[in-house]
Amino acid sequence: MAEEYAIEMLNITKVFPGIIANDNITLQLKKGEIHALLGENGAGKSTLMSVLFGLYQPEEGTIKKDGKEVKIQNPNDANDLGIGMVHQHFKLVECFTVLDNIILGVEPCGKGGFLHKEEARKKVMELSKKYGLQVNPDALIEDITVGMQQRTEILKMLYRDNEILIFDEPTAVLTPQEIDELMQIMRNLAAEGKSILFISHKLAEIMAVADRCTVLRKGKYIGTVETKNTTPEALSAMMVGRNVNFHVEKEPAKPGDVVLEVRDLTVGSKTHKNDAVKHVSFDVHAGEIVCIAGIDGNGQTELVYGITGLEPLKSGTVKLKGKDLTKASIRERSVSGMSHIPEDRHKHGLVLDYSLEYNLILQTYFSPEFTSKAGFLKRGPIREYANRLIEEYDIRSGQGPVTTARSMSGGNQQKAIIAREIDKKPELLVAVQPTRGLDVGAIEGVHKELIAQRDAGKACLLVSLELDEVMDVPDRILVMYEGEIVGELDPKTTTQEELGLYMAGAKRKEVEV
After folding, report:
1. Domain carrying residue 365
2. Is the pTM above the cut of 0.85?
3. Which of 12, 94, 381, 382 has a 20 to 30 A CA-CA distance from 57?
């Protein structure tokens, strides 16, 4: 029955140079349901939603709302039809307040063109209370956490009274606690009769909140299933085209000499007067993976910044294989054998307007392999090197090595960074949220790479917010709480519950170095 569908996307085809992003896809969203869209990195999920939101025009196909065909030329048309979207990479003005971002484009004005902010503030605070989306309307976007920015994006949709809500990878940048909150918010919205399209490749989340799930693979429609009648294993096989091993297979670690030596490390905070990292000391040995675990905002980010040279230290020392790098530049650390997969891939991982091949040589372009004695880049070897990494790490992009990094899917941007950092064959790999935004097949690949590094006698410092990853991948877990290391745990003998108690600050024991 057509009238039970809020949105129908029928036979949509969207082509970009060198790639058919959506190949004859049909998606039907029922009124009041949470409908998940699942697929690998680069499967065409975000493209399909961007067509629905009016950011792209399809080459073929029709869109119907409530059974009637509609033309969506731009996001304003989508908003007029009650369609709102929270993008994977937020579309917020950093120097504006939360309130200004929410009302941007639909500002309430009086007769003389003056802004009536009080009405808007009242409506925003009512929405915030009703849906459990606590925000500070006067805070600047650049000063608030990623989770708060996401709440701002959701309030932006609700402020416009949108009935159809698109969430593009909404949990990729959230902590486990924030994810639970978001799931509850989505359930509340659906209970009110709003229809939700939810792009994800986290199977546990889809099983937890979605009523139905549509699977895409390499731009093609694979099928739609009811989540209550399927399993995560069946969904992952539909998505990747093969069975995926959810458990990390590894031999016991054989730790060798100390590679990274951190002593009495203190790093200041940009957001408050207290120090973000307080007198932290630990070692990472060759042939082991050490994971820093903790709830987001307990100093993990600043600790990594201190070790990798992105922030100056207030006190303490950082040594790599006995060499003091405390005051070394980022390039010096890189050349000395330190690789860094950063938390924020756009800010610290890529130059978005460079091509993929140039992004892959960002830290090695000055080597004789890629630069001539006269200082010119050697294009042939660069292209060859890029093609090898694209092949080895399955980096998917429309135009291969010459694709602009900005136009690639988030997961493939992440794969490019991982390829670049691991291929340097570092002594120490600092991997912060390395699987953020990746599908199950790619996550399995990254975990295998980390284990391979370890087994080759390299040291790996992993920072993760994913509890499954924290329990499954490392050989030792160090828990951070309020800028201090409050416990060292063995993942083989500890439980998620015990780990949670340390992360929440309810338990602690002194860690000897």
Report:
1. 352-425
2. no
3. 94
Assigned token pair, 329: 């530049």
CA distance linking residue 373 with residue 355, whole number of Å: 24
Q: Same domain for 133 and 182?
A: yes
Residue 321, domain CATH: 3.40.50.300
Burial class (CB in 10 A: 0-12, 13-18, 19+), 392: exposed
Question: Are 100 and 201 contained in the same domain?
Answer: yes
Please check whether residue 441 is in contact with residue 235, taking contact to mean a CB–CB distance below 8 angstroms: no
Helical H runs in 243-367?
A: 300-308, 330-335, 356-360
Domains of the chain: total = 3
Token pair of 277 as six digits: 């990292």
176 within some domain = yes
Three-state SS at 464: strand
Residue 343 lies in a domain: no
Say which residue the tokens 């978001």 belong to: 182
Q: Do 470 and 509 fall within a single domain?
A: yes
CA–CA gap between residue 64 and residue 85 (Å, rounded):
17
End residue of a domain, out of 365, 398, 425: 425
CB–CB of 5/29 below 8 Å? Answer: yes
Q: What is the pLDDT of residue 314?
A: 93
39 bridge partner residues = 216
Closest CA to 84 of 150, 174, 156: 156
pLDDT along the chain (513 residues), means of 10: 79 87 92 91 86 92 92 91 84 89 85 82 88 84 80 87 87 72 87 90 87 91 92 86 76 92 91 84 96 88 94 94 94 95 89 96 94 94 96 88 90 91 94 84 86 94 88 93 92 87 80 71
Phi-psi region of 24 (alpha: psi -120 to 50; beta: other; left: phi over 0): left
Report yes or no: 169 and 11 within 8 Å, Cβ to Cβ. Answer: no
Asked whether residue 491 falls in the same domain as residue 416, the answer is no
Candidates 449, 448, 458, 424; CA nearest to 256 is: 458
End-to-end CA gap in the chain: 67
Q: Check residue 400 and report its DSSP letter.
A: G
Q: Where are the alpha helices (DSSP H) in 366-484?
A: 379-393, 410-423, 440-455, 467-472
Query: φ and ψ at 37, to 5 degrees?
Result: -120, 115
173 located within any domain: yes
Structure confidence at residue 296 (pLDDT):
77
Residues 130 and 144 placed together within one structural domain of the fold: yes
Same domain? 308 vs 220: no
- What stretches of 80-219 adopt beta strand conformation (E)? 83-86, 164-168, 195-200, 212-217
Q: Which residues contact 240 (CB under 8 A, 6 or more apart)?
A: 40, 217, 439, 440, 441
Distance CA(206)–CA(430), nearest Å, equals 30
186 plus 198 within the same structural domain: yes
Q: Which pLDDT score, from 0 to 100, does residue 253 have? A: 86
pLDDT at residue number 3: 58
Does residue 158 share a domain with residue 275? no
Domain boundary among 240, 263, 295: 240
